Amino acid sequence: MGRRPPNPTVVAEPEGTTNGTTNGDDSGEAPAPLTTAQRLAASTASTEVPPDRFGREAKHFTETRVLNRDVRIVVEGTDSFSNIIGSVYYPDGDTAKDLSLELVENGLAKYVEWSANMLDVEVKIKLKNAELQAKKEQLRIWTGFKPPVTNSKPIHDQKFTGKVVEVVSGDCIIVADDAAPYGSPSAERRVNLSSIRAPKLGNPRREDNKPDKFARESKEFLRTRLIGKQVTVEMEYSRRISTMDGQNAVPVMNSADTRVLDYGSVFLGSPSPADGDDTSSAPSTGTQPKINVAELLLSRGFAEISKHRDYEERSHYFDALLAAHSRAEKAKKGIHSDKLPPVMHITDLTMVNSKKAKDFLPFLQRNRRHTAVVEYVFSGHRFKLTIPKETCSIAFSLSGVRCPGKDEPYSSEAIALMRRMILQRDVEVWRLLPLCFVHISIFNI
Fold it and tell me: Where is this region: Disordered (predicted)?
């Protein structure tokens, strides 16, 4: 029977000793286990993701409008993971409002291109415009937003009337300004149609630069509708493009191989009977002419919409252009169809050798009168004509007339006058002597 050993003496820890260490040295003892509350807090902190900026505001915006309320849901489609994509409309008095549009307008949501492609064109346009407006006003998620630098600049308060003297391509025309002296070379202004792109004509002298599909039809459509017609032009923006890449925009610093083009909307005062239902349905007013030429081209399938980046200048009537382009796509008109346009080969007799040119002589001598189109004005009395029936182009001089030549006084005035009178017009030429075309009649002056 022995005695119980005495209890060990407990020595108080010196001040400054914490967590099992003394004077900075490890004690070797394991730390105390975490409590249940501590483990729960640690697990929650590791998985919680902080909300995006204005995320809570967007959730509150949606809850106050649709939570516990009757709404209408329109299923637009599904994505690649079979997630349903749709639109939600909630009642607001006697009207139904689109929740997506409301979120974008208030700067609480962004426009998403891939899912917006499932929507109707009109709804898609509204969403895109709402986002642009929210960016301009820097609402909520767009606070501090700085628009990117673009190569386009707006043109303000430039509106004029004039007569179309030349169609350069399916999206470019030359208009003689009524404010300038009649027949003056300075009166002609080159106007590119805003926000559209017509098929390229190419270069007929180069085998590797052939015209695009429906390029000739696009230009001919404008020629028959516009040449000699009075139009109203609203200049909208200018854009610096590369001379090598056509209409592709380039950085401003590469100015050596660039040029600046002016873009605008061109309007006809009255529709042509051949236009039919392709003209704009918007009624004309005292300030807005009736027919937008760009819209007319798009509705016939002779042009495409230009793909503008955000904050790039565009047509003031861009929504109407998008709607016309959508109608042409659905109807498969023009460039949207699977059919190829009819092929028309024109032999330029001014560029071939004499033997080949003589092969056309019997056909030209067969008829005394020929219907032609004036393709180019070399001087006041020399022109280039295309005779569609004979599939050839010829050089032509007026009989008994000589206008001032190059660098002679009034040479440019004579050319400007003839351009305004007969360029790209349907004309009739008479052969009074063999190989001598001496008379020209102009249709529809």
Answer: 1-53, 195-215
